[in-house]
Design goal:
Six copies of one chain form a homohexamer. Chain A is mostly helical. Chain A is 82% helix and 0% strand. Chain A has six helices and no strands. In chain A, helix 1 packs across helix 4. The radius of gyration of chain A is 15 Å and the shape is globular. The interface between D and E is small, with 9 and 9 residues.
């Protein structure tokens, strides 16, 4: 496989999952750390999210739980709640995942996760998205 | 609902997911903090894992990713990899989830998660479990 | 004990400790995750903070130190600095706890904790609270 | 104040709180990083634990909660559970503090904290300590 | 050595590394926790950054990586990216360090670190600093 | 560039930095998650450590500080202290980096880092390495 294939596959996957929000992350990096943007396209999206063995909806669900539990990545949690909804998660499932994190990372992590979800749901209401 | 119903429901759910390993956690707490054992039965299992809105396999998958990402809860990760396999996850799916955590929590977290999974898989091989 | 007793006890404890700020947290959850709000009333407040064996002032002090050390839960730290002051801590004791966290979680955690405390003290000055 | 006073005050405080276990930490550092040992005597013990404004029992309690919540400092949690008991905490209070951390840092943190406390209590039983 | 020497040495080091931004941190603490400000001058700057055995540029580089990896100390990361640039790091080196943290702490930590660096570089452009 | 070049470059870099210890990590993954091993060769080593803009010694130093600060990756910290020494760091510099982490991540993180360094230094003494 050529490197260029890996980038192309990652870019398609990024757009499938995150849409315009994903592109904005890459754009944000362009003037300061374009290679970090390239790595994000190539490794998480071109390599990991493109793997068989776990469906895309499950991949987004486990990312939402991990970012909620870590508790220090609100901007990325926002992108991935959008992503999870884009690939077939319901809002109900998002809320269930975040509630469950109270068990493993404590109530503050769950509360802050719900706060991010609330913002995402409001944005999607305005855009007419489920 | 009576409190006793909540405990009974949690105990059944704990045994469904974690089997004897779950019971050993509760036993371990019996002489020093029995109420913590009771809370574990009642809140995570009686309340959260018993909720509708997210299937049990998904609940275990998001717990495996969160504990891998947090990286400071190896004993609990072990119990929940067993639990995930007990409720329908494949070993392949466990490995995929842990690999994906390299993206969100770094390669050390993924490597240490794989190390726990390797121990769990070896234990299950000895017990003739999938 | 009936479930409803547990909720009532938790609600009373929540109001004793956190006053209106605690109620606002529950309200915030009402439209998106009301069960998380119910769990917060029932488990942390109805179960844990209602336990004998440790006085309420000490319970709030150990929460302030833990949230300062974790460093990723500023909104909850704010609520619990208010809570600690509401149940008998002095501002001096709050500051001492946060300074001590420099030893265990590093100076950035302590600095960010002091920043939250400064906001809380200013709010209380405006409200004429100690 | 002379530097030597600061060290002497810290050493006395270290021995008051942690006894032989504290000395062993300093000894452990002697051949590889003696200045880190000196800093531990001078800053945490000579400066922070020697401050007025918060009693020593409370200082140890907030350290136990913070180390339980952080979840990556088991050796230090062990030393400070001993320390807390040495300066007037009861075993019951230690258990209460750790249980409460389930709320703020999740059940795995609380379980791993209880596991450390169980070891400490067993050591003290053997030594005839409360 | 007298205590006053330690403070003087720390203050000089703080100004050498962080300039006015460092002084603002100490000022911020003056009305609420002046002793924390004094400890910051004395211990990190008077003791640690004044040590031989590692050059100042390297000391700032390892601080930038650690704060990026921890991911919960954005204000301090900002101060230390300024500090690193003040003592001889290039912007390119800062970006390289932060990109590398994607490996050890995950892509969200690296992205949030780059976001802080972008703000710092913009501030320095306005001030005509390299 | 072809993918195979990326792997080859990463493998050479891995061996340059970590020697046999790096190979053992990849071997360990072979039966359970060989693709994670491949990613480690390709992304951290083939992409990141192979970048210009920051010398290899500095790259290892910032990894040692980050892993010390995170505090939940002792096996990886061990590999990278070896790596840092292999590419030109002195033991003194390693100790300085770890001591400095007391400032940013607290004394427990520094103590646990020193404990890992002590093991590494003893291993290298036995092997006649600097």
């Amino acid at each position: 496989m050529k490197e260029s294939d890996r980038y192309a596959r990652g870019w398609a996957k990024l757009k499938e999952i995150d849409g315009a929000a994903g592109e904005r992350v890459i754009d944000f990096l362009n003037d300061i750390a374009p290679d970090l943007g390239r790595y994000i396209v190539e490794f998480p999206f071109g390599d990991v999210y493109s793997r068989p063995g776990l469906d895309l909806k499950s991949r987004e669900m486990v990312t939402v739980s991990a970012l909620t539990a870590l508790g220090n990545a609100a901007p990325q949690l926002k992108v991935h709640i959008h992503g999870a909804l884009n690939v077939g998660c319901s809002r109900r499932e998002i809320v269930e995942i975040i509630i469950q994190m109270a068990v493993y990372a404590g109530f503050p992590a769950a509360l802050n996760g719900i706060s991010v979800a609330k913002d995402v749901f409001a944005e999607r209401d305005q855009q007419g998205l489920s």
